[in-house]
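Troubleshooting: if your tokenizer reports a length mismatch, compare your output against this known-good record of 172 residues.
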Amino acid sequence: MNHLTQTKTVYSTQWMALTAMLMAMNIALSSFGVPVPGGHLYLNDVVICTAGILLDPLGAFIVGGIGAFLGDFFFYPTPMFVSLVTHGLQAVVISLCVHRLYHGKKTISAAIGVSIGAVIMVAGYSFGRAFLYSTPEYALLKLPFQILQAVTGAVIAMLLCFHFRLTDQIQK
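Known-good structure output:
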């Protein structure tokens, strides 16, 4: 037997509970938006970025991709596959940056991760909207709201995880 067949990933009850709780929060927060002039601001990006920082790539994908997919499926199904791919990729990239980029410098790794994740989210939804609604003008019209949502999610997640020490509490 080689080393690869002997090692097996086992997910703890704590990992499953945290993943399920964050996924439920993502579904809930994707169901309604905060009204802003000309559109709505959805706060589920806060949960997606937080999951990317706290969880491994699989857990981050479950929370980000599948959680956003289910939120759209239940409340507004048109962009559900765009949400699955975009938010799933966003969460995985954040998680990979946090856990593999700069060992010992989690804050810097997370800042890079959420920045790349924000670009992925804005680009993914812009292209997705242009494809779904067959008009690039609609995607451009929503672009400022996508940018605001991405920046808000990234900043609040960073504050929650590092300023309010959510990462320390989860590791205990």
